[in-house]
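Bumping my old thread because nobody answered last time. Still need a sequence for this structure:
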């Protein structure tokens, strides 16, 4: 399964904020520069994460982004479910027009695979993704 860029950037932004471990908010431009990605995309992802309650956004001078919840409460499987369209095929929706939908083995297998994928992600929280904090911090240019 391939995750969208939006989810990828959401995970990167959360990792950045968690590793940063600062009391001052991180600026969107700072995050974008560290990952060499568009600040416009980072801003859109930040907006999603604010709406989901994962981060706070502060406006004005000295503004920026901070984690809103502890890293050990951010479940990766939950985040992926919230940011991804998990409808793998047309038949995964309520309006399937496929004539073999009721007995399709492929739909079943893909559904099982998707559940296994999400089950693995459910076993991880953000704090486990940053257990190598010192190395991440150095690569992201944090003091």
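Sorry it took so long. Here it is:
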């Amino acid at each position: 399964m391939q995750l969208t860029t939006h989810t990828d950037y959401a995970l990167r932004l959360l990792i950045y904020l968690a590793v940063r471990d600062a009391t001052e908010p991180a600026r969107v431009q700072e995050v974008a520069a560290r990952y060499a990605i568009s600040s416009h995309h980072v801003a859109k992802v930040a907006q999603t994460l604010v709406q989901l309650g994962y981060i706070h956004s502060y406006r004005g001078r000295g503004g920026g982004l901070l984690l809103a919840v502890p890293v050990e409460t951010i479940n990766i499987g939950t985040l992926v479910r919230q940011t991804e369209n998990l409808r793998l095929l047309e038949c995964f929706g309520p309006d399937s027009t496929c004539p073999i939908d009721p007995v399709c083995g492929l739909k079943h297998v893909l559904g099982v695979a998707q559940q296994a994928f999400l089950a693995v992600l459910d076993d991880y929280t953000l704090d486990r993704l940053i257990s190598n904090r010192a190395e991440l911090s150095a690569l992201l240019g944090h003091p």
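Residues 10 and 34 are 14 Å apart (CA to CA). Let me know if any region looks off to you.
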